[in-house]
Design brief:
MFS; mainly alpha; globular; MFS_dom; Growth Hormone, Chain: A; 409 residues
Length: 409
């Protein structure tokens, strides 16, 4: 934690992002619950969730190049501020009872698209304020921060929903406003003035260049293949559990706690993240994480009968994730030049999440027509396929991110 005490800009960055992620975590509970409560339709809830995720995935194609060209502090403030205004507007529309499913979907999709700038902009800030030797520790803290925000945000979202959708969204909007005020100011790019004249006409070229950088690195390319298939099964899990227990008339605060259980697992696994990410091959971490996902998803066929047994299984599934994400993130930052960090993270994020919207949509259709059993079976099958691909790529991986950085430089 010394890097937080000794680096005020890093501390402010963490504060701003944890508040923003807390607000988004609240929305992930409030919006589906609103749709399920008002319209009693897993299909509509799944469709809107899928459209939001698709909007995030598509807009991420350009967000990295934007983050590399514009001051990242300004981008974060603009993004958090827009989320404040849009969620606040939806809160007012719900309060005056003029919001319908189309308005809810439209505003949720716009927020989802805007929020994709947050990640690339944050990593550009990290690259500018953190020494290379501290990037691994910084990304581990970032991973724990995101999990903590999810952990706290989900039950808060469930509890706030008991006050009504309008009140819940109004409080959430205020959180985004405070987040915008906390964003630190950082220096401009390494070559001030050169960006406008030499790089401005080549925006789409830079977007494509980010994808070329990702697929030009063997480890990153194979990781994208595996993660895109894995996320087809992993990402819909929260939506599936929320829908299953909402249909059982489970209290919203209990649903919120259940959705936070994955974050509990991530936090419990975080103490090992720094050590494992620097000593164990990425492929080995992938195998461990995906194996746990497959087993716990199969366990949910029986465990979903009660929220507490489901929560235990979800906690177990999250244990291996922080080491995996920390290793991938620190490796990606280490081998990427500062001017390309945003583009590379956007490109890898797009391919990692490209199939996830389909997963949520299919889950909504299956829940509406055949029930949770077939959803859990299909998710386990998809993750088993990702695990099989990981075994094929077992020879691809890195033992130490630091060594990768040294060889790259």
């Amino acid at each position: 934690m010394n890097i937080v005490k000794n680096n005020p800009a890093f501390a402010r960055l963490q504060a701003a992002n944890v508040l923003n992620e807390l607000g988004l975590a609240i929305s992930y509970v409030i919006i589906p619950l609103t749709i399920l409560t008002v319209y009693n339709s897993p299909f509509l809830a799944g469709l809107i969730s899928a459209l939001c995720l698709a909007a995030r995935t598509l807009s991420a194609i350009f967000s990295g190049a934007i983050a590399d060209r514009i001051n990242p502090s300004l981008l974060l403030k603009a993004s958090f501020g827009a989320e404040f205004l849009l969620w606040g507007a939806l809160a007012l529309l719900l309060y005056f009872q003029v919001a319908n499913v189309y308005i809810i979907a439209l505003l949720s999709i716009i927020v989802a698209a805007i929020s994709t700038i947050d990640g690339p902009a944050e990593f550009v800030v990290l690259k500018r304020i953190m020494p290379t030797a501290e990037l691994g520790a910084a990304t581990s803290i970032t991973e724990a921060r995101s999990s903590t925000a999810q952990l706290v945000g989900n039950p808060i979202g469930g509890a706030l929903y008991s006050l009504g959708g309008a009140a819940a969204l109004g409080i959430q909007a205020a959180i985004h406003c405070v987040a915008a005020l906390c964003v630190p100011q950082v220096r401009d790019a390494c070559t001030p003035g050169a960006e406008d004249t030499t790089r401005a006409p080549r925006f789409f070229t830079e977007v494509k260049y980010g994808f070329r950088l990702v697929f030009g690195d063997t480890a990153l390319r194979h990781l994208m293949y595996v993660s895109s298939i894995a996320n087809l099964g992993v990402v819909p899990m929260s939506f599936v559990l929320l829908t299953v227990f909402q249909q059982k008339n489970t209290d919203s605060w209990i649903i919120g706690i259940l959705l936070s259980c994955f974050g509990v697992g991530v936090i419990l696994g975080a103490p090992l993240a720094a050590r494992l990410s620097s000593t164990v091959r990425l492929s080995t971490l992938l195998i461990i994480a995906l194996s746990m996902f497959v087993l716990t998803t199969l366990g949910l066929i029986v465990g979903s009968a009660h929220p507490w047994s489901a929560g235990i299984l979800v906690i177990i599934s999250g244990l291996a994730l922080p080491a995996l994400n920390s290793a991938i993130t620190s490796y990606t930052v280490a081998v990427t030049e500062e001017k390309d960090v945003g583009k590379v993270f956007s490109a890898s994020g797009v391919f990692g999440m490209i199939l996830a919207p389909l997963g949520i949509f299919v889950a909504g259709v299956l829940l509406a027509h055949v029930g949770a059993l077939w959803v859990f079976l299909s998710q386990a099958l998809v993750m088993a396929l990702a695990l099989a691909l990981t075994r094929i790529f077992h020879g691809v991986g890195l033992k130490r991110c630091v060594k990768s950085k040294e060889s790259a430089s």
